[in-house]
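As agreed, record copied across for absentees:
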Amino acid sequence: MYIQVDNANTFIATGGKPFAAHLPTVVLLHGSGTDHRCWALQARWFAFHGYSVFAPDFPAHSLSEGEALTSIELMAAWLVRALDTTKVDKVHLVGHSQGFLVALEAAGLLGDRLKSVTALATASAIPVNPALVEMAQSNPKVAAEMMLQWGFGSPHQYGASSVPGMQPIGIGTRIMANNPLAIDLIACNAYEKGAEKALQLANIGCPSCVILAAQDRMTPKKEGFKLALDLNTAAQVIADSGHMLPMEAPKESLNLMKKFIQSLET
């Protein structure tokens, strides 16, 4: 569906069903340079099992118009404005990589509407190599190829795919090369409040779930374990997957996501 946010058309994937504000809403936030498509399986499952799905393309990404947002703080404020247009009152935030930094920052702005946070392949801080940022500014396609060669685990480097006949590294390169990857990476690198925000969520007793990838070379597991400690939860690790966890291991990540969120709703 399309909604108007800041006078710009914004695309929200809803998992194949009409959005219903009265249902608990699973908000799926993509990482740097990607879009709603990384959540294809997860979005569809939640939409057909009693939830509304809100999986936005951030401004200037893929199907959304507007100017690219230059900081995690601006992205979080934008997300809350986008959610306000739908009048939802029960929000489960789920973020991959940069998307979880946005979730951490947005959580404090949602008040009683926030019901849980789920982190996938991420950490409370995501430093970015300056050489990668420079490459993303000068040649986004090469930067996207570099990121995805590092981002996918070993099975996908040999052609494995969770969707028969599809090559996620090739598809991901096309998506990322046409999105504001450099701006996203700079925003990630500059964000320093993640640990503070995670501790705040733990202090108010916000339910949380941390799902990590055993072969993650972009946000290493040790940093994910630190995030889980700050959130006062136990991290769960998916084997044979790299940083692009929602696309590499969609069934495994979905199983952990739905088990956690369903436990809160029941």
Observations:
- The two ends are 28 Å apart (CA to CA).
- Residues 2-265 form a domain with the Rossmann fold fold (CATH 3.40.50.1820).
